[in-house]
UniProtKB/TrEMBL annotation, chain A:
NCBIfam families: protocat_alph
Domain Intradiol ring-cleavage dioxygenases residues, every copy: 12-104
Keyword Transferase: no
SUPFAM superfamilies, per the entry: Aromatic compound dioxygenase
GO molecular function: ferric iron binding; protocatechuate 3,4-dioxygenase activity
The keyword Cytoplasm is annotated on this UniProt entry: no
UniProt name for this protein: Protocatechuate 3,4-dioxygenase subunit alpha
Highest taxon of source: Bacteria
Family: Belongs to the intradiol ring-cleavage dioxygenase family.
Keywords per UniProt: Dioxygenase, Oxidoreductase
Annotated source species: Jiangella anatolica
A Pfam short name: Dioxygenase_C
UniProtKB/TrEMBL annotation, chain B:
SUPFAM superfamilies hit by this protein: Aromatic compound dioxygenase
Keyword Oxidoreductase: yes
GO BP annotations listed: 3,4-dihydroxybenzoate catabolic process
One Pfam family matching this protein: PCDO_beta_N
GO MF: ferric iron binding; protocatechuate 3,4-dioxygenase activity
Protein name (record): Protocatechuate 3,4-dioxygenase subunit beta
InterPro entries the record matches: Intradiol_dOase_C, Intradiol_dOase_core, Intradiol_RC_Dioxygenase, PCDO_beta_N, Protocat_dOase_b
Region annotation (Disordered) ranges: 22-48
Database matches in Gene3D superfamilies: Aromatic compound dioxygenase
Domain Intradiol ring-cleavage dioxygenases intervals: 86-114
Superkingdom of the organism of origin: Bacteria
NCBIfam families xref list: protocat_beta
Source organism: Jiangella anatolica
Keyword field: Dioxygenase, Oxidoreductase
Length: 184, 248
């Protein structure tokens, strides 16, 4: 008795008063012990940054535990929630201040789960940001060609941060994911 | 600039060639011009969710004030327009309620104007209406917003392009993979056939799922009109091994 799902629609251009909020992208305070910056650009098919995109991440903590605690909308005093939201700026840049997730199962991959929304994008997209040190032996990565695989693995910045660009379309198009039950 | 009749002809041609039963919008839908450079050209790769993908973020009473569900009391005075109640349930694909989860909405005011820097529609801003709301679903998956019926508004997809009245909805499920952002429409809108965003869903039954129903039992005498809209998220709980669900 599977119910048919409600279809998605574009986030449109007018979400900025509604969805962003104070410290939405600061899963941990910037500069705090163990914090890193995960950041990059959302590009359209012409290689231009998308200034009206929204990126959300979900992740495990450094012990490999996915937090199930409230407080993402009012961070001060809240524990690490493992979820954050970043709109892009006028150049298409997004960023998060967070900690690195550890694998949830021993020997498994470590990744950030990602959802992407944008004006002009009619439904959400899912992808993963793999940590370069924990990408070996992953069943998804192992199915991809080398360029696609490289596109899902973050690059290490000089300051220890992680850089991950999202290409909605084009030669470097990001590998997007579909999960069981998603249909079309 | 492209005329409506050309956009409408493109929509009809795509619908005529589409299979019945596509459940989601096309990402590649040229009548919506902004989609041209923003749709992936490759099919998404199937993968089994794991780790963080199996667990939606958790929200609670520290995140949301119950007053945020009433958009008519937020700005120190009565907003202008038709007062409405929008009520419904958030369910997963197995019909299970999505409990205590965040619902966010945003919308234009009665004149079709958003509180947003980039909205250039020369319609009045209502000093008593922001068009922003949040709530948590209850133990039955239920949500309710008191608001003002939004107006249709023009946009620049083509000449004389107008969006049917809608409320933007942002939803979370129990799994991260159930994340949904969509738009709720009002029954009988004459702009439906003309709108490339609504028509990006090629299947008529799937489009219908975005249209709220007028529900006279939800209307309150001498106060407001009621609309009902249930939301079904994709899939059940992917790795739900048999439920230890003693509370229903
Ligand atoms: Fe809108």
């Amino acid at each position: 008795m599977t119910e048919p799902a409600t279809p998605g629609q574009t986030i449109g251009p007018f979400f900025h008063e509604a969805l962003p909020y104070a410290q939405d992208r600061e899963l941990v305070p910037p500069g705090s012990m163990g914090s890193i910056r995960l950041h990059g650009y959302v590009y359209d098919g012409a290689g231009l940054g998308a200034p009206d995109a929204l990126v959300e991440i979900r992740q495990a903590d450094p012990a490999g535990v996915v937090p199930r605690v409230e407080g993402s909308l009012h961070r001060p005093g809240a524990a690490f929630t493992g979820w954050g939201r970043s709109s892009t700026d006028r150049t298409g840049h997004y960023w998060f201040s967070t900690v690195e997730p550890a694998p949830v199962r021993p020997g498994g991959p470590a990744f950030f789960a990602v959802t992407v929304f944008a004006r002009g994008l009619l439904n959400r997209l899912f992808t993963r940001v793999y940590l370069p040190e924990h990408a070996a032996g992953d069943p998804l990565l192992d199915r991809l060609d080398p360029a696609e695989r490289a596109g899902l693995i973050a690059r290490r910045d000089d300051d220890g941060g992680l850089r991950f660009d999202i290409h909605l379309q084009g030669d470097a198009e990001t590998v997007f994911l579909t999960f069981p039950g998603h249909g079309g | 600039m492209t005329e409506q009749r050309e956009i409408s002809a493109e929509i009809v041609a795509i619908h005529d060639a589409a299979q019945v039963g596509e459940p989601q919008p096309r990402l590649d839908f040229p009548p919506y011009r902004s989609s041209l450079l923003r749709h992936p050209t490759k099919r998404p790769r199937p993968v089994d969710p794991e780790g963080a993908e199996l667990v939606a973020p958790v929200f609670g009473h520290s995140d949301v004030d119950p007053l945020e569900a009433d958009l008519t009391i937020q700005s120190g005075g009565e907003p202008i327009g038709e007062r409405i109640l929008v009520r419904g349930r958030v369910l997963d694909g197995d019909g299970r309620p999505v409990r205590r989860q965040l619902v966010e909405i945003w919308q234009a005011n009665a004149a079709g104007r958003y509180v947003h820097q980039r909205d250039r529609h020369p319609a009045p801003v209502d000093p008593h209406f922001t068009g922003l709301g949040r709530c948590l679903t209850d133990d039955d998956g239920g949500y309710a917003f008191t608001t003002i019926k939004p107006g249709a508004y023009p946009w620049r997809n083509h000449r004389n392009a107008w969006r049917p009245a809608h409320i933007h909805f942002s939803l979370f499920g129990t799994d991260f993979t159930q994340r949904l952002i969509t738009q709720m429409y009002f029954p009988g809108d004459p702009l439906f056939p003309l709108d490339p965003i609504y028509q990006s869903i090629t299947d008529p039954a799937a489009r219908e799922r975005l249209v709220a129903g007028y529900d006279h039992d939800l209307s309150e005498p001498e106060w407001l009109l009621g609309y009902r809209w249930d939301i079904v998220l994709t899939g059940g709980h992917a790795t739900y091994l048999e439920p230890e669900d003693h509370d229903d």
